[in-house]
Write a structure and sequence with these properties.
By secondary structure, this protein is α/β, with parallel strands linked by helices. Helices cover 45% and strands 18% of the residues. The chain has helices spanning 19-29, 42-49, 78-91, 128-141, 145-161, 167-177, 180-199; strands at 9-15, 32-40, 54-57, 70-73, 94-97, 110-114, 117-121.
């Protein structure tokens, strides 16, 4: 499930080396991020000073969950983490206690992002390391060229759906546009343009972009 968090109030409790990347990830979604922590990293303070997040340097209080859609808990205290999770459950707030699967209503997947194409990998919290390795493999399989291709597909889809074609022909055309053959043709274009430059050097560095 991909959840739209833009404009929603999200709470993060804890702002150290574990909480910081979770805060950064929420910022990328456009969420309204509220952070409660006894101490915060330099990056978190910088986000607060820039007005990107709301930061309160103090202990957590149950009222901090008021009006919250989603909570991420990343403190060093197991007892406090469990207490916040139970309070979130009581209030119907989705909660993730980082690295404690039994205290999670949702998991953070490893994600391959190529523009609007997103591929999420999850092991249900059992092995984040495996999820990361699979992400790296998929990043090699799905190169940067997919971003432009998916964007082009989206624009073409709008034109097809707005056309006067009958529904069955629209469906067949959309399927053909997303076919393996169409993908190969789309991704082959930049390769062809680069080929001339590559042939000029006998020692061309052919690294895979990850």
């Amino acid at each position: 499930m991909f959840v739209k968090l833009e404009g929603r109030r999200c709470l993060v409790v804890g702002a150290g080396k574990i909480g910081e990347p979770k805060i950064g990830g929420l910022l990328d979604t456009g969420a309204r991020v509220h952070v409660i922590a006894l101490e915060a990293s330099e990056a978190v303070h910088a986000w607060a000073n820039a007005g990107k997040i709301t930061l309160e340097v103090r202990a957590f209080a149950p009222r901090d969950l008021d009006g919250t859609f989603l909570a991420v808990v990343a403190t060093a205290s197991r007892d406090l983490n469990a207490s916040i999770y139970r309070e979130a459950q009581r209030r119907g707030v989705l909660c993730n206690v980082v690295d404690v699967p039994e205290y999670c209503d949702f998991y953070y997947p490893a994600v391959v992002r190529r523009g609007d194409l997103q591929i999420a990998i999850s092991t249900n919290g059992q092995s984040p390391s495996l999820a990361q390795k699979l992400r790296q493999q998929l990043e090699r399989q799905f190169g940067p060229g997919y971003a432009a291709w998916v964007a082009e597909l989206g624009e073409t889809r709008k034109l097809v759906l707005a056309s006067d074609l009958d529904p069955e022909k629209k469906r067949d055309l959309l399927h053909s546009l997303a076919s393996r053959e169409a993908l190969k043709a789309a991704l082959a274009e930049p390769v062809t343009k680069k080929q001339g430059a590559s042939e000029e050097s006998a020692h061309d560095d052919r690294r895979v972009t990850a």
